[in-house]
Amino acid sequence: MEIAYLSGAYIPGRGADSVHVMRMCDALAGQGHQVTLHARHGPEPARDDFEFYGTKHAFEIVKHLRPQVRVVGALAFAALVFAHLGRHKRPDLIYAREIYSLRFALPLKLPFVFESHWKPRNRLGHNIEAAYFRDAGFRRLVLISQALSDIYVEEFPWLDRARKLVAHDAADIPNTPASKPLSEGRLQVGYVGGFLPGYGLELLEALARSRPDVAFHVVGGQEAAVRAWRARTTRVTNLKLHGFVSPARLHELYAGFDVVLAPFQSNTAHIRWISPMKLFEYMSFGKAIVCSDFPVMREIIIDKQDGLLVPPDDLASWQLALDELRDPGLRLRLGEAAFQKFSERFTWKRRAHDVLAGIG
């Protein structure tokens, strides 16, 4: 099947959305489909997009300009995508993560799947999505968590529930050498992700200050944010900020972590329905995970079975969890259980199969 994947992500870029769409397109191509990804020109210097993300050269990428003006830029991008679709052989299916591009493509009368990672942001967005779900081409709505699916039931109570599919984010099974510590004799604790409000950097700093015998590693962040945090934590010698590392190179760091953290706070913008890609990457490396205890996280992790769930803002609970995980046997048990669950349910290959099952 020929699939046009419509995304507003920057390629190459640092956002989780760019990693998601590249991994999904790679997985869809791995299922035997011919995939063309439509995306924005990205700001990151990269010799090769596929090399940057560590994906196979198995699909086409078409990049369009998008002016940096809200709504107007999105509409201009959507018009360029529509023009490209109109000039070339029509695909068998449109797979969309960008609402305006899909809205422009509806006149082509092609079957489509719409994937949402966010509830409708306003009345306009709500109305546009409602039009999708009533369109003759609508085949499936893919949602990244059961919590987001529940929100869509509230927003669109008339929507046929058989047309909805919950598909969490995912990861690939890594092909890396055996785990090695980044420095001998110390517990190695890692965080991979953004520096956005609510992502828990302040908690990480407090943990590092309170456990000087533990090595903490923070991977990610824009340069300005990383510089500011380095200045703030100059005297916290057991906290290392690695800065941004390309997706293809992350395994070099993951392999050396003993414990990994997902310290989301209650002011995370979409904490009610988030499906953090980092959790599945953590699981794919068989790491012991400590994660903030929110209802949506319980869709992924069972406390004390394949990770530890702790109150998000209770420093003492995070300290206790790290102290418990000094036990290598506990780390091994939790990590193996996390990997087992991941390999059965949360690979990109499994996700690509599920989102298109029965379509085409």
Kindly report the spatial arrangement of strands forming the biggest sheet: 3-2-1-4-5-6-7
Number of strands: 13
The average pLDDT is 93
Radius of gyration: 21 Å
Number of helices: 13
Please give the alpha-carbon distance between the first and last residues.
7 Å
Question: Which structural class fits the helix and strand makeup?
Answer: alpha/beta
Q: What portion of residues is helical?
A: 25-40%
The ordered H/E elements are EHEHEHEHEHEHEEHEHEHEHEEHHH
Q: Main sheet, how many strands, which sense, barrel?
A: 7 strands, parallel
Shape: globular
Strand content: 15-25%
Poorly predicted regions are none
List keywords for this structure.
alpha/beta; 38% helix; globular
Structure description:
The protein has helices at residues 16-30, 49-53, 72-87, 99-105, 123-134, 146-155, 201-210, 223-232, 250-254, 277-284, 315-324, 328-345, 348-356, and strands spanning 2-11, 34-41, 60-64, 93-96, 112-116, 138-143, 164-166, 188-192, 215-219, 239-243, 259-262, 288-292, 308-310. The N and C termini lie close together (7 Å). Helix 1 (16-30) crosses helix 13 (348-356) and helix 10 (277-284) crosses helix 12 (328-345). With 360 residues, the chain is α/β, with parallel strands linked by helices. Strands 3-2-1-4-5-6-7 form a seven-stranded parallel sheet, sandwiched between helices. Helix 5 (123-134) links the parallel strand 5 and strand 6. 38% of the residues lie in helices and 19% in strands. The mean pLDDT is 93.
